[in-house]
Amino acid sequence: MSKGQIDYFLFKSNSEIINKIRQIDVLDTDPENTSDHVPVILTLNSQLKKVREKATTIIAKPKWTDCDHQIYKEVINKELPKLMQKSKGIIEKDIKNLEKLLHKAGEAAIPKYRRKIKIKSKGKAIWNEQIDKASKQSKNAFKVWRQHGAPQERSNELKIKMTAAKRILRKAQRQAYASQRESTAGKIMKASNSDTKLFYKLINMQRKTPLINTKILKLIEKTAEDGPSIMNIWQEHFQQLATPTIEENFDTEKLELVEIQNNIIESIEREKGKLWILLRNLYKGMSIKVKWEGQCTEDVMVLQGIQQGAKLSTTLYKCYNNVILDSILKSGLGACIGDIQVPAPTCADDIAVLANSTADAQGILDIVQHHTSRDLVKINPTKSEAVLYNAKGSNISTLKFEDNDINITNETKHLGIKRNEQNRANISERIRTGKGNNIQPSWSWVTCQKGILTHGCIQAMENICSTKKHIRT
């Protein structure tokens, strides 16, 4: 080492470290170093030992579904009087004796009761900045809700905020797992061409991922903990989805007119043998079954909606949804590019409402509400959001849908792409989303003031005009 320096490393001459020293570099001529201290790099030979993670032994949870209730009751009824006679009034001792009695009954009535099993850690759960932020917000919302008496009314503001915070947390978790799956798929595709060993390693990892069904299923106030009960709840749930419901705000006049119209069309088409009868027959008497753990429920009659995965379904849905879009277009409300109206860019059932005033946006929402009430369709307003674009110092008025306020936020997602009030886009995220063909089936509302070019329609607009001079404000 250089004796002209002010720093030294001191160790015993017979120390084991001497045999491990590979190289010592004193960077006393480093041009970037302006300190009085000189950097020293010491390289040591070392051997890393792989430590196997020790398995933890735990007592398995008893399978109460396999419990012989008769034997369980007999053991308790037989031993409990003896236990009460031996009691000396010491609560702690009585509780321990009662616990021993319950374990004795469990050993007699439940196979493999309290058996010991070894488990190993399966790694940490996914965690990122978005999940961390959403988790804190969810905990704070839950805390405030509990402090105010934990109100259960759905209309309660604290209950709504807590539910919304939980929904945001679950959404962040789903996005993180989806990103992980996408990354794994990308690695598999790359490894298939270059690294055969890594390719098969990733494939085996995917195959080893267990598919675990839930053991408890809840529907409103009903709870199921065994296979048949869970299947019954699934059947009831899908039967509710497949059966039309008439609510107070629905306009039943159109329903009556449609039934009369269908009867007239059927009488006309029967004589001609046209395709309308064929299409009607495809949906008449349609049923589905729910498969759960290899078993199927009874038939669930489908009385509304379109078939999932059928080739005609997208076309039939467009025929329905096009009525709403035409009404919005004919109203003259919403954003424009020159003489071209762009009030509601749409992909499947994902609609973004674009407007240069709150009044226009509210008018479009009222049009949608009018049509959905006549079509007996219910939209969840809590899943809709509004973004104020390019309006510094402006305050947006409240937007409503079915007497519910639309949440005003500075960022939302439309077709998998984040839209924000600064009109800034993450290009790499757009490319990644485009490759994954990520289309979210949900309604999202976007409104803007003092400028109408928003992320909600920028992809459709950027091919029409390249400057903001063409935009009518």
UniProtKB/TrEMBL annotation:
Full protein name:
Reverse transcriptase domain-containing protein
Q: What superkingdom does the record give? A: Eukaryota
Q: Which residues form the Reverse transcriptase domain?
A: 279-416
